[in-house]
């Protein structure tokens, strides 16, 4: 059996085939020489009878073996020659086959080019046939159209003849059935156009009949369109609108739609507020002075922008008749907006007309609301306590109710306008519609506001204010004796804040209800009312009343009547300072920022405020000066109770620890003055008061002690009294006064040292020479020891 795998088992050996056949080998494949030799040797071994054992295989590989087998070698040579010839023949066959193949390829290429050319010609013929077919189709279509037109014209002539002869519409399904409304409208329009071109009496009759049918159809369609508008059936509305547009009745459709909305708007009930529609409603909190309206916003539109709202109609309306109407109106407009966009091709125009019509109803409601407030004779009880909350201890005037209603109505309508911002309304200016409603009310607003403020502020002044004015104009001496003014009263911060809160509300209304041109003047006028009533009337009244009592005390001291001065004026200073602080804060935060754009109003109100504050400050300074003079005189009076024996006791005592009775009373008075002054006066006024008061006290004490004689015990007593005074005056915190009292304290040394040491003391003393010599004479031993000759 052959071992070579690439021979593919074609080399056969053994008993069946005793000869090795090279013809059976597949020469197209590569043969392994070694394997081929092994196969060849195996065949020889199988044919050799002498070989019986595989161990003798080496014998056949020797030279002797090949010599003995010359026949096998010859066969191999012949076989090689045959193979060579076969290869040559095969090569020739391949070359001939390639030549034939090339010829076939060239022939096929020529045939293919011929086919392509024939196909192009065929395609051109098909295109020509298609174009011809299209032309034929168009001609057939035109013929069909001409046929239809002819048929339609014949039908139109028949209908026209019917209208001319019978003067009524035909009874065909086209003119009877509602399924053919569009076709009927087209036929009537064409018939009407034909009739207009023809002349003659019969044709005129036909024209009238046709126009009558058109009018009936229009009325029917408009009525059906209106019914569909009420039911909000947008598909029906759109169907009838398309028919009416054939008659150019789009404008009538819009008017019909607006008329249907007008009917629905009239049905809105405003007698009871629907609380379910008040979404997100919250109570309005009273604004503090610092959190009043943004002063940089100078128009009602910017004020409204601070209010939170959105397209979902969740604005905060109050439960009033107008607000309830606006809430329901918003809901209806929202529904109509969706309907209009589905039906009309120009929804902007339709919505603009709808909004304009809705403002007619808003105007009616606003007028009724404000007219009702004007005619209403009932007054609502109202008051404002220190927290700015309402109480029921005064009656609200009709003007106050009217202004409040006007403000809330205007604000509600602006909120309504804000809900419409998402609508595309073209050139429609909703704000102009609002201004038309409130134009007449805004024109006389300021007069009503000023009258209301004057009335309200006049009620807040003390009852005795006008009696005080009468005394001031006629005879002020009677005022001092009037028992009504004997009890001291003070201005309260609560009442002052009421003035400010009321003014704040007025400014809030002015911002909303004023135009940009007159806003500055309106704010200035309102601020001047506050300036007049709170400053010139309310504060100045209390200041003047207490000031007159100080003047009376001053006259009493001139008549040598001994009475301790009262400190009511210090209380009035303290309370006035607190009120002025709030007053200034209100102007700084609220009034002046608004008026920065209005130069004239800004400078005017600033000047008037400065004049008021200067007047109040001058009055307080004058009163404080009178109080200081009275206090100094009373202090001087208390020192008159000093006894000579206080400083020249007969019994010598070196352990003096108490102050004299006169000093004790004087110190108690100084403590009272100091506490009250520090409590009520501050800043530069405090420094000035203590500086003047301390220097005058020091001068008084200097002159006071120069009237007495002092021995050694008296000197110690003097030292105790002066220490008590120094302890108080140090609280003044005035260096000049402190230095003066330290100098004053050295007086006691003049009476303590022996006479021989006086010259040394004189050189070290802060007292000038005249003062030093003056107090040397106050020594009890001045004459006995002839001290004057030694100094």
From TrEMBL:
Residues 184-480, 486-785 form the Exocyst complex component Sec10-like alpha-helical bundle domain. Pfam families: Sec10_HB (PF07393), Sec10_N (PF20667). The keyword Thylakoid does not apply. Residues 66-175 form the Exocyst complex component Sec10 N-terminal domain. It comes from the Eukaryota. Gene3D superfamilies: 1.20.58.1970. Keywords: Coiled coil, Exocytosis, Transport. Belongs to the SEC10 family. This is Exocyst complex component 5. It comes from Anaeramoeba flamelloides.
């Amino acid at each position: 059996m052959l071992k070579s795998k690439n021979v593919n088992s074609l080399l056969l050996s053994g008993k069946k085939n005793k000869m090795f056949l090279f013809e059976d080998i597949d020469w197209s494949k590569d043969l392994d020489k070694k394997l081929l030799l092994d196969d060849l040797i195996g065949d020889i071994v199988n044919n050799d009878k002498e070989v019986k054992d595989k161990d003798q295989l080496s014998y056949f590989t020797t030279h002797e073996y090949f010599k003995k087998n010359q026949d096998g070698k010859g066969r191999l040579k012949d076989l090689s020659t045959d193979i060579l010839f076969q290869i040559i023949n095969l090569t020739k066959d391949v070359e001939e086959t390639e030549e034939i193949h090339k010829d076939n390829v060239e022939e096929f290429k020529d045939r293919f080019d011929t086919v392509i050319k024939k196909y192009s010609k065929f395609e051109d013929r098909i295109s020509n046939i298609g174009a011809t077919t299209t032309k034929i189709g168009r001609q057939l279509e035109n013929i069909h159209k001409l046929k239809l037109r002819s048929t339609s014209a014949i039908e139109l002539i028949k209908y026209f003849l019917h209208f001319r002869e019978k003067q009524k519409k035909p009874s065909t399904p086209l003119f009877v059935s509602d399924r053919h409304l569009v076709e009927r409208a087209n036929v009537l329009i064409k018939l009407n156009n034909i009739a207009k071109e023809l002349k003659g009496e019969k044709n005129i009759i036909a024209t009238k009949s046709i126009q009558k049918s058109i009018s009936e159809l229009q009325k029917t369609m408009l009525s059906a369109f209106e019914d569909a508008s009420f039911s909000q059936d947008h598909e029906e509305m759109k169907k009838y609108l398309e028919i009416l547009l054939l008659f150019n009745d789009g404008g009538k459709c819009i008017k019909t739609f607006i008329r249907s909305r007008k009917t629905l708007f009239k049905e809105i009930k405003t007698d009871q507020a629907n609380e379910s529609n008040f979404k997100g409603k919250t109570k309005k909190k009273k604004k503090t002075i610092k959190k009043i309206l943004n002063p940089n916003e100078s128009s009602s539109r910017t004020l409204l922008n601070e209010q939170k709202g959105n397209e979902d109609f969740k604005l905060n309306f109050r439960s009033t008749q107008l607000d309830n109407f606006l809430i329901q109106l918003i809901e209806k407009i929202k529904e109509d907006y969706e309907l209009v966009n589905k039906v009309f091709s120009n929804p902007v125009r339709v919505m603009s007309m709808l909004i304009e019509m809705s403002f007619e109803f808003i105007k009616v409601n606003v007028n009724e609301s404000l007219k009702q407030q004007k005619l209403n004779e009932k007054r609502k009880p109202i008051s404002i306590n220190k927290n700015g909350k309402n109480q029921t201890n005064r009656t609200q005037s009709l003007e106050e109710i009217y202004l409040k209603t006007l403000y809330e109505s205007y604000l509600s309508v602006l909120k309504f306008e804000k809900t419409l911002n998402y609508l595309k309304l073209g050139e429609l200016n909703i704000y102009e519609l609002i201004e038309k409603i409130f134009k007449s009310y805004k024109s006389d607003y300021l007069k009503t506001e000023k009258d209301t403020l004057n009335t309200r502020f006049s009620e807040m002044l003390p009852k005795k204010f006008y009696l005080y004015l009468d005394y001031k104009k006629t005879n002020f001496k009677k005022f001092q004796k009037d028992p009504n003014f004997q009890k001291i009263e003070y201005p309260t911060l609560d009442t002052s804040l009421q003035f400010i809160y009321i003014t704040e509300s007025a400014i809030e209304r002015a911002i909303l209800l004023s135009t940009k041109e007159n806003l500055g003047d309106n704010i200035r006028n309102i601020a001047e009312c506050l300036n007049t009533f709170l400053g010139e009337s309310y504060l100045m009244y209390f200041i003047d009343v207490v000031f007159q009592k100080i003047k009376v005390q001053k006259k009493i001291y001139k008549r040598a009547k001994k009475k301790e001065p009262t400190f009511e004026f210090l209380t009035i200073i303290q309370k006035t300072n607190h009120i002025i602080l709030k007053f200034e804060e209100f102007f700084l935060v609220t009034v002046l920022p608004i008026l920065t754009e209005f130069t004239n109003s800004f400078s005017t109100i600033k000047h008037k405020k400065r004049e008021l504050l200067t007047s109040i400050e001058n009055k307080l300074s004058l009163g404080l000066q009178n109080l200081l003079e009275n206090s100094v005189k009373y202090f001087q009076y208390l020192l008159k109770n000093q006894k000579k024996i206080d400083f020249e006791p007969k019994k010598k005592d070196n352990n003096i620890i108490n102050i004299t009775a006169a000093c004790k009373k004087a110190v108690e008075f100084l403590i009272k003055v100091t506490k009250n002054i520090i409590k009520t006066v501050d800043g530069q006024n405090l420094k000035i008061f203590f500086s003047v008061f301390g220097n005058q006290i020091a001068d008084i004490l200097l002159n006071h002690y120069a009237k007495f004689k002092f021995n050694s015990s008296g000197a110690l007593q003097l030292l105790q009294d002066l220490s008590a005074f120094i302890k108080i005056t140090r609280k003044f915190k005035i260096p000049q006064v402190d230095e003066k009292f330290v100098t004053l304290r050295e007086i006691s040394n003049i009476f303590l040292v022996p006479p021989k040491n006086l010259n040394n003391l004189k050189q070290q003393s802060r007292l000038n020479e005249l003062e030093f010599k003056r107090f040397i004479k106050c020594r009890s031993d001045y004459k006995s020891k002839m001290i004057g000759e030694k100094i």
